Amino acid sequence: xxxxxxxxIWNKKVPMSAIEKFSRVSDDLQQTIIGQRSLVQxxxxxxxxxxxxxxEGAPGLAKTRAIKELAQRVDGSYKRIxxxxxxxxxxxxxxxxxxxxxxxxxFQAGPxxxxxxxxxxxxxxxxxxxxxxxxxxxxxxxxxxxNTHQLDGLFLVMATQNPIEQEGTxxxxxxxxxxxxxxxxxxxxxxxxxxxxxxxxxxxxDVSVESATVETLTADDLLDARGQLxxxxxxxxxxxxxxxxxxxxxxxxxxxxxxxxxxxxxxRGTIALDACARAHAWLAAQDYVSPADIQAVVHDVLxxxxxxxxxxxxxxxxxxxxxxxxLSEVAVP
Length: 333
Known about the structure:
single chain, alpha/beta, Rossmann fold, Helicase, Ruva Protein, domain 3, 2 domains, two-stranded antiparallel ribbon, 14 helices, 15% strand
């Protein structure tokens, strides 16, 4: 019995086609984005949980390729925005254009009105541009002059940061970091995976090889899948475990002058961890959320929501190490 057939038996409300489509898209992406299995999964989780990704990694690790390949498999528009220090808010939101013939102004929409956005090197943009992006991410609207324009239901931003070069960058404020559903770190592939990447690129350059058709997710597919996340069963014990993990980040900072954490995760972190754990369980064809689903996504959900103290930075302690400590101390149901 396949995992799709067993899932259909567990939960009759979940249509077989929805899980099959996401599974085919996932398998297809794994074939074209080699060595970044976690990034592919996180992109699909963000798509299901209706959130945004901050991806950090060195150049050349298929970050741009990943979001571009995903966009080809989603029924929606895609735009890449290269963030630079001289970028203006109007460059991404759009602006009013004067039409001499009619003597009127007409709004010309910017790239933010697309449904899937790659915000490349977001920390190179000045604060005003970052705030314009923040409004679109958090409120699903764009304000230009006196007018406010609503965005579509499908709106996914994948922002990238280069951890190597920090010259000429504008660090993202904590308030904006909290708007990202997950902060994903990508690393170099293994040697054997690099061999597969080399062969894949060679085959793509061969014009005699025909391009294969790809599975496409429609807006209805996404809406149906998102609706199914809330139907997954989560026991009270697992829900309590999720909440205790998040509140433990605050307890580490509570009135301790030598604490390694200055501020813990907000309730938005609890909501994000619940949504990501549910999406992780759904992609695994489960009809319930387990502690393992929470543990699988907790680093990506909380690492940018934990503000480390000066003591932690001096001691070389990372947010991931803090989360590892919490996972070892908080009892698993």
